[in-house]
User: Fold this.
Amino acid sequence: MVSCRKWIAAAGLIVLLNSCIEKSQDGKPKPAKTDSIDLITTGTKLVPAFAQMDSIAILFYKDPFGADEERYTRYYTLFTSHTDSVIGRVQQNMDLPFTEDSLRNCRSEGKMYCFSKGKVVQTVYFNTLQQNCTQLYFIHEGRYYYFKPLQSLILQLASLKKQARE
Assistant:
């Protein structure tokens, strides 16, 4: 009698487990679902507002590598733009992979205020003049995200610096 109960319990357990397996329409078991994680590896994925940028203000520090480490950001020239040719290059760079790091011991040559609908969505700092510190970076939720600037953006920043005004 006891062994019969064991067989009935085992058969019931098998039926129960078999009913829990998802089956496709043809009756075959479906492959197990796996969680997919979309890794955030680009600036645009981290800050989607980069894709909605509609204007930009670029500040070029007048003496970024001078002796005054504390106030070198105080004096600058400014270039503003609503054109796709300027905004698009920054967006291209933000579509590239970043490196997350602590604050590096490099000064910035300037910074870019990226706007969408009249509000600053992100500030991007840049340095294109020092070979060992050529970088773009922004701070997001207390972390630093670094990018290697595209050569086309480096050339464009050099050109825009000549057009910038006080």
